[in-house]
């Protein structure tokens, strides 16, 4: 069965620090990969996605993620975090060949940015 | 474009009571998903509809949970009777199949507390 593992449950950073959140998945086939973000009091929204092509994808608000197929990883990065990045971040996997679009989510990482 | 609407936003019930949640997807989106998000975990798919037909309900506890999407637009998810472990946020999402990937748009969720 597919699974997604996020390495860090809770990350605390100071403003301007660099961020990297780990995400690994287990699935033998071709996948689409997503990072969703949930800001306090708001709904889940898409941060960035990968489905093919350049393994380095850029999303909103200066976020980027790199797909490393050999490591089954899709880590999220941001060079300099802001207080407004405080949120919960979810990595998700979707089978490329599936016509259902089912998402398998990781358990989430809570990011707290100190001003 | 209006987003995915859900109601109520919060619900508190006692165990063994019944509860129902409502979701109205983005206009024109044929696919509708219900996810359960328990505190500290990522969302887990409960059921997926394509128009008014069920595509995947393998994770739905059918002894107590039911869902319907009679006219292929809005949907209701019901729990009867509720258990303490049903305390969670219930998320509704919708999508329209794309050529390459399937992006889901999430509603604000309904937070259920079972006492």
Note the topology.
The complex is a heterodimer of chains A (115) and B (115).
Chain A lengths: L2 E4 L3 E5 L4 E3 L1 E4 L4 E8 L6 E6 L5 E3 L5 E5 L4 E6 L8 E9 L8 E2 L3 E6 L1
Parallel strand pairs in A: 2-12
Antiparallel strand pairs in A: 1-4, 3-9, 5-6, 5-10, 7-8, 8-9, 10-11, 10-12
Chain B lengths: L4 E3 L2 E4 L5 E6 L6 E7 L6 E7 L2 E4 L8 E4 L6 E5 L8 E8 L9 E2 L3 E5 L1
Parallel strand pairs in B: 2-11
Antiparallel strand pairs in B: 1-3, 3-8, 4-5, 4-9, 5-6, 7-8, 9-10, 9-11
Summary, kept brief:
The complex is a heterodimer of chains A (115) and B (115). Chain A is mainly beta and 115 residues long.
Q: How would you describe this protein?
A:
The complex is a heterodimer of chains A (115) and B (115). With 115 residues, chain A is mainly beta. Chain A has a single domain, classed as Immunoglobulin-like (Sandwich), CATH 2.60.40.10. Chain A has strands at 3-6, 10-14, 19-21, 23-26, 31-38, 45-50, 56-58, 64-68, 73-78, 87-95, 104-105, 109-114. Chain B has one domain (5-97): Sandwich (Immunoglobulin-like), CATH 2.60.40. In chain B, β4 (31-37) and β5 (44-50) form a beta hairpin. In chain B, strands 2, 4, 5, 6, 9, 10 and 11 form a 7-stranded mixed sheet that branches. The termini of chain B are far apart. At the A-B interface, β6 and β10 of A face β5 and β9 of B.
Biggest β-sheet description of chain B: 7 strands, mixed
Task: Name the pair of protein chains with the most residues at their interface, and give those residue counts.
Answer: A-B, 25 and 26 residues
Please mark out the parts of chain B with pLDDT under 50 across 5 or more consecutive residues, or reply none.
Answer: none
Global Rg of chain A: 14 Å
Return the CATH architecture of chain B: Sandwich
CATH topology of chain B: Immunoglobulin-like
- Mean pLDDT reading of chain A: 93
Helix content of chain A: under 10%
DSSP E strands of chain A, number:
12
Rg of chain B from C-alpha positions?
14 Å
Number of domains of chain B: 1
- List the quaternary state of the chains: heterodimer
Profile the largest sheet of chain A: 6 strands, mixed
CATH architecture group name of chain A: Sandwich
């Amino acid at each position: 069965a597919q699974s997604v593992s996020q390495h860090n449950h809770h990350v605390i950073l100071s403003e301007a620090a660099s961020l990297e959140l780990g995400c690994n998945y287990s699935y033998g086939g071709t996948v689409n990969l997503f990072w969703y973000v949930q800001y306090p009091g708001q709904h889940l929204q898409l941060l960035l996605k990968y489905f093919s092509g350049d393994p380095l994808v850029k999303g909103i608000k200066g976020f980027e993620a790199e797909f490393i197929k050999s490591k089954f990883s899709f880590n999220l990065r941001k060079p300099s975090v802001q207080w407004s990045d405080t949120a919960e971040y979810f990595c998700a996997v979707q089978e490329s060949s599936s016509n259902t679009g089912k998402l398998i989510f990781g358990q989430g990482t809570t990011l707290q940015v100190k001003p | 474009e209006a987003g995915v609407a859900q109601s109520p936003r919060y619900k508190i019930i006692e165990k063994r009571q019944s509860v129902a949640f409502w979701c109205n997807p983005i206009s024109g989106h044929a696919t509708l998903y219900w996810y359960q998000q328990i505190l500290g975990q990522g969302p887990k798919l409960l059921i997926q509809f394509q128009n008014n037909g069920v595509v995947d309900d393998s994770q739905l506890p059918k002894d107590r949970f039911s869902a319907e999407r009679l006219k292929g637009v809005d949907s209701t998810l019901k729990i009867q009777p509720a258990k303490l472990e049903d305390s969670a946020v219930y998320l509704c999402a919708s999508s329209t199949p794309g050529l390459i990937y399937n992006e889901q748009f999430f509603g604000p969720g309904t937070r259920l507390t079972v006492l």
